[in-house]
Design a protein that fits this description.
The chain is an alpha/beta fold. The chain is built from five helices and eight strands. The strands form two sheets. It has a four-stranded mixed sheet with strand order 1-4-3-2, with helices on one face. A four-stranded mixed sheet has the order 5-8-7-6. Strand 7 and strand 8 (151-157) form a beta hairpin. The chain is globular.
Length: 219
């Protein structure tokens, strides 16, 4: 998409701008701004720090009147929402995996802080999964935003290098590319068989983080 705004900054061709400093905000559509604001402020403890309306989308001019509102975490990063009257409900995902993999993870200061969320959420009628120990990565509790059905995670890192393990990350991406290629060649046009073959490769240890034997399947 081409920008419609002119700037005074001249960036040399082929020179990448500086890496972004932090997460500014993530934003989703809600169909109930009141219930959403109450959940994030009163249950999650994230204060409502800004909100505004507009009759059109500023970036595109599309005629969707909206309320945009923002909830802040301790480091200043934001979870934000739009409500626009008359929008239909989103189509359901084509596979349950999308409701599992797509999630927002929120960092807390300790494993005890993760565990403290269990009775608090249960007291507000919210079911939880875990805490789950991800060896070498994080200690995590999972639950759903009860208004918008977005999967949330409260998490404490178990390894100080969890977000700075660049060498292994590049190895894992390269190995994953090769695993997908091998599976596609072995079972062309059969995505379920390709997934089974990739699972077998992971069980053999390919691209798996050191010291982790792989998670057990659901019973």
């Amino acid at each position: 998409m081409t920008s419609t705004t002119t700037t005074s900054v001249t960036q040399p061709p082929g020179v990448r701008p500086a890496t972004p400093q932090m997460l500014s905000h993530v934003a989703w559509v809600t169909h109930d701004s009141i219930a959403t604001a109450e959940f994030y402020e009163n249950v999650m403890g994230m204060p409502l720090v800004n909100a505004f309306t507009d009759p059109n989308v500023p970036s595109t001019g599309d005629p969707y009147p909206f309320l945009h509102f923002f909830h802040r975490m301790q480091d200043g990063s934001i979870v934000a929402w739009f409500e626009s009257p008359g929008l239909p409900a989103p189509a359901p995902p084509s596979d349950p995996a999308y409701d599992i993999f797509n999630h927002l993870a929120l960092l807390v200061e300790s494993k005890e802080a993760v565990e403290a969320w269990v009775p608090w959420l249960h007291g507000h009628g919210i079911d939880t999964i875990g805490p789950v120990d991800h060896p070498g990565i994080a200690y995590s509790l999972y639950f759903y935003d009860p208004v918008n059905h977005i999967r949330l995670e409260v998490s404490h890192p178990l390894d100080p290098r969890w977000n700075s393990n660049e060498e292994f990350a590049h190895h894992a991406i390269a190995e994953w590319r090769e695993m997908k290629r091998e599976a596609e060649e072995a079972a062309p046009g059969d995505p379920r068989e390709q997934a089974r073959l990739v699972a077998n490769m992971i069980q053999e240890g390919r691209a798996r983080r050191p010291g982790h034997e792989g998670s057990a399947p659901a019973q």
